[in-house]
Each structure stands twice: as structure tokens, then as C-alpha cells.
Specification:
By secondary structure, this protein is of the alpha/beta class. Helices cover 29% and strands 26% of the residues. The relative contact order is 0.08.
């Protein structure tokens, strides 16, 4: 009987091989002045895969990375997949103890780390794995990641792979406790990234940014999507508005992904009109809603499409897209329409699926659902109660069947007998012309139970009083939604992907109202 393993497999490493076979000399990666062709990227990934196998690693073993965005990181991601191993990206920004916890939890065989992230812990990291490979200028040749690319075999290793084999384990931020390892198979990454090509209007001629951290699911899935197509990816190691605009002009970037805060930073930059940004045709944003003023300015002055993508590590993105044609037609926290590979419903109590305009938990089904949480069967089962994946997000479908996000279940503020969506208040705040970013939480209050509290970051060079901000909110919100207090701050606690860490604000300001009645 014919072995169909190679005939009908779905495997992440195959994505790069196929694009390299069709576009060998096309530029795959640009970083600074360095350019890497698809042929070279594929061969380097094969060499790393063969190195890993010859190092004694077996199918299913784990290779962890503590890295920023780099060409080496892309080579490693695909090399790990080609070898039938499991990639474990670790956020460089988490504590050393959390890094140690993750390395121990996954029993990492090899660790790839940027030298800058060692922070004097080299010996500790070496003790936790079979081999430590480093990226950086001050690294001895024998320890350098690049020495693995001198492996004599550039052909792809013959590894039996199946679509349900594990390809990566990504850990959640752990903001409410111990971080959870999200186990993801080849099928989820392959199909979700392929669906993005259609949903986000990508094409083979695109020149796309890699600006958000590739260790995060959102940027990783987009990189994979563009490699499906054989497009060109420009790695931008850190965001600075003017440097970013120079890169767009130089490389003629057509497709970008960034946070709303990033769009505001360059669209309102004093040098905005000094650069030719006409190559941009598609601008994706995520993690937070875009205020109407910035959205209109971006669409009108860049004359390109804007879209919002949503998803989560447990439900490989994108799960929904708020598309260009709806951006200015609909106002509010719209997530748009579910991805073509995703079933989305709204669930109420006891598993009941709700109708249009009824608020409940957003739940999904599809091939991009995680395998489960690593070593946590109880939590895995809780997340798939009633046969749906539970997101922890509240939302509803409007009259047209478009998905609207209300809030995270844990972020809904209960104040004076009313439920207030923190997202709704944040949207009102960022619509103020002087506000760069804002976050809203509920804090304990003797009278209100939870008091709506706003933390506001002003645009550079701007000044405003809390009374001015509150007056603006009174014009745009219901009386029970207006913040009881506005704190103007110089910075907001964020993750490396730009998400506001509301739990830190709750902890730091827990006693704000303990001696006052507002």
C-alpha cells in the first residue's frame, strides 16, 4: 500500500520550500542593507534542520528561542518545523524566573538566544538545555547560531510529518497567574496563515513589514502568510516614526501591520509630509481600536485600505477581520466578519447560542483551534465547554451580522448598578485631539463598587487638564460611563506587543479611592 505521508501532508516547513522552488532568486527578507533570497532562506533553514537532527534531537523535541526580530529568527523557525521539532518562542521581556519556568515546562533541548538577552545568566541557561546558541556580534564562533548554517547538507531532511503534529508551543502572558503553554499543530498555522492571504488582500508583489514581535502569534501568522505567496518581508527591529517612514519610502513598502499607537505616531509626526509613502496600499492594525480621527486621516492622506484583524494564541489568527469597506461605514468596537475558516457564535448561560443584538461570550470553532494547554487538561476542557472554544471576550452580532466586541469579561466595569465597557470609554478618550492613548479600568469604591478610572497619555508637546478630558467625555458618553477620575501619565504599562497591562494599573492604584468619595 502506498505511503501517503508525503503525498497529502500539511506541514509548515513545506510553505517555504514551495515558495523557494517557484521564486528562488526573489528577495524574501530585507533587514538594513542585507537581502536574503528565497533560495538562500530555504537552504539555511534546511541546514539548521539537519544540524538539529544530527545533534540527536528526535521528532517532538522542543527548541526554544529568546530573540527579537532578525533574519536568523526566521531561519530558525522554519528549520525547527522542517526537522519535525517544536518551536517554543519566549518573550524576551518576561522575568528570568518566568523564562526558567517555560524552559523547564517544555524540557527544551536547545535554546537560541540573542546575546543581549542573556543579562549575565549564560551559565544558568546552559544548565537548562542541551545546547545554547547565540545571536550577536560578541559571540564566540563555536557558540554562534550562524555556525549551524555551515552544515554540509542543504537538502530538506526527510521527516514524517502529519497535520496534527505539534509545531509550536506559545505561552500566554500569565497576567492572571502562571503562564499557560498553548499547544498548536501544523494544521492550525498552515490553514490560518493561508486564509489570511485571502482575508487581508495580500499578493505576491507585496513588500510587507515585520515590525511587531515575531514571537507573538499575530506577527508570526502574517510572516507565514507572506512566505506562502513568495512576497518580500522587511524586518524593522524597532519602531521609531521617522525611521519607519524612511524605510517605507526606501523599500517601497506596500503592506504594513502595526498598533493604532504606531499609526498615530507617524501620521501626526511633524515630518509626515516630508516622505513619499504612496507605496502603502494596505494597513492592518490590531490589539486596540483605532480612533476615528486617526483612521480618517490615514485613509485620506495615505489613500490606502485600513483593516482590523483579531484573534488569539489559542485560536490562531486571524479569526475575524473588520474590512476596509466597513471601516468608516460602521462606528464602534467592530471586529467585522469571521474568517472564512472560522465558525463564530455568541454564547449565553448554559451553552445557549444567542441571536443578533444579544451580548454574550464570543466562541469559535475551526481548524485553527489550539490542541490544548500544555500539561493542563482541566483548563483545556474548560475552554472548550459545550463544544466551542471560549475566548473570554464579550460581544454580539449586529443587525447585519457583523461582530462587535464589547469587552473582556474580566474588564467589564460594574459601577453603581450599571455595566460599563472599558473599550467604549477608551474610544471616547482617544477621540480627544490631544490624547495619544488611554486605558480605563474599574477600581474599588465604597459608593460605586467600581469607579470608572481613566489613565491618559497625551500626544508629544500637548498639555491638558483632567477637567478638560472629563468635559470631553461628558459630551460623548452617558453620565454613568464618564470617568470618576482621570490621571494624566507619562507612560502606560504595556507588553512587548503593545497590549496595555491593566492588571498592573489595578494593583498599583487599588487604593486610589480609599480616602475619598467621588
Amino acid at each position: 500500500m502506498t505511503d501517503v505521508t508525503m503525498l497529502n501532508r500539511v506541514a509548515v516547513g513545506d510553505i517555504l520550500r514551495r515558495s523557494a522552488s517557484k521564486n528562488p532568486q526573489k528577495t524574501a527578507i530585507i533587514i538594513g542593507e542585507k537581502k536574503i533570497s528565497y533560495e538562500q532562506l530555504n537552504e539555511d533553514s534546511n541546514r539548521f534542520a539537519n544540524y538539529l537532527i544530527e545533534s540527536g534531537l528526535q521528532k517532538g523535541d522542543t527548541v526554544a528561542t529568546i530573540c527579537g526580530n532578525s533574519w536568523q529568527m526566521i531561519v530558525a523557525i522554519f528549520g525547527i518545523a522542517k526537522a519535525g521539532l517544536v518551536w517554543v518562542p519566549i518573550n524576551p521581556g518576561v522575568s528570568f524566573n518566568e523564562k526558567c519556568y517555560i524552559l523547564s515546562e517544555v524540557k527544551a533541548k536547545i535554546l537560541l538566544c540573542d546575546e543581549v538577552f542573556l543579562q549575565g545568566k549564560k551559565e544558568e541557561y546552559e544548565s537548562m538545555c542541551q545546547e545554547l546558541l547565540l545571536i550577536g556580534d560578541g559571540v564566540a564562533p563555536a557558540e554562534k547560531f550562524e555556525h549551524t548554517l555551515a552544515h554540509p547538507h542543504a537538502n530538506e531532511p526527510e521527516v514524517e510529518l502529519h497535520d496534527r503534529d505539534i509545531v509550536q508551543i506559545m505561552f500566554t502572558s500569565g497576567t492572571t497567574g502562571t503562564p499557560k503553554g498553548v499547544v498548536i499543530n501544523h494544521q492550525a498555522v498552515f490553514i490560518a496563515s493561508l486564509a489570511n492571504v485571502i482575508e487581508a488582500g495580500m499578493n505576491k508583489n507585496d513588500v510587507a513589514t515585520l515590525m511587531m514581535p515575531v514571537f507573538h502569534c499575530a506577527q508570526h501568522t502574517l510572516v507565514t502568510s507572506f512566505i506562502h505567496l513568495g512576497a518580500t518581508i522587511v524586518i524593522i527591529p524597532g519602531f521609531e516614526p521617522e525611521a519607519f517612514m524612511k524605510t517605507v519610502e526606501k523599500e517601497k513598502i506596500t503592506w504594513m501591520f502595526g498598533l493604532p499607537l504606531m499609526y498615530r505616531a507617524f501620521l501626526y509626526h511633524p515630518s509626515f509630509h516630508n516622505y513619499n509613502l504612496t507605496s502603502l496600499r494596505y494597513c492592518l492594525y490590531a490589539m486596540a481600536p483605532m480612533d476615528k480621527n486617526t483612521l480618517e486621516k490615514g485613509i485620506n492622506e495615505l489613500t490606502c485600505d485600513f483593516a482590523l484583524g483579531t484573534g488569539q494564541t489559542e485560536m490562531y489568527p486571524a479569526t475575524a477581520v473588520f474590512k476596509p469597506e466597513d471601516q468608516l461605514r460602521k462606528s464602534g468596537s467592530y471586529w467585522g466578519t469571521p474568517s472564512l475558516i472560522t465558525d463564530t457564535s455568541i454564547m449565553g448561560e448554559n451553552g445557549k447560542l444567542l441571536g443578533k443584538m444579544e451580548v454574550g461570550e464570543i466562541v469559535h470553532r475551526g481548524p485553527n483551534v489550539m490542541v490544548g494547554y500544555l500539561n493542563n487538561d482541566e483548563e483545556t476542557e474548560r475552554m472548550r465547554e459545550y463544544g466551542w472554544h471560549h475566548t473570554g471576550d464579550l460581544g454580539y452580532f449586529d443587525e447585519e451580522g457583523m461582530l462587535v466586541f464589547v469587552d473582556r469579561k474580566k474588564d467589564m466595569i460594574k459601577t453603581g448598578g450599571e455595566n460599563v465597557s472599558s473599550i467604549h470609554v477608551e474610544q471616547a478618550l482617544v477621540s480627544h485631539p490631544k490624547v495619544l492613548n488611554a486605558v480605563v479600568i474599574g477600581l474599588p469604591h465604597e459608593r460605586w463598587i467600581e469607579a470608572v478610572t481613566a489613565f491618559v497619555l497625551l500626544k508629544p508637546g500637548e498639555s491638558a487638564t483632567k477637567e478638560e478630558i472629563i468635559a470631553h467625555c461628558k459630551e460623548n458618553l452617558g453620565s454613568f460611563q464618564v470617568p470618576k477620575e482621570v490621571l494624566i501619565v507619562s507612560e502606560l504599562p504595556t507588553t512587548t506587543t503593545g497590549k496595555i497591562q491593566k492588571h498592573i494599573l489595578r494593583k498599583n492604584y487599588q487604593g486610589l479611592y480609599s480616602n475619598q468619595q467621588v
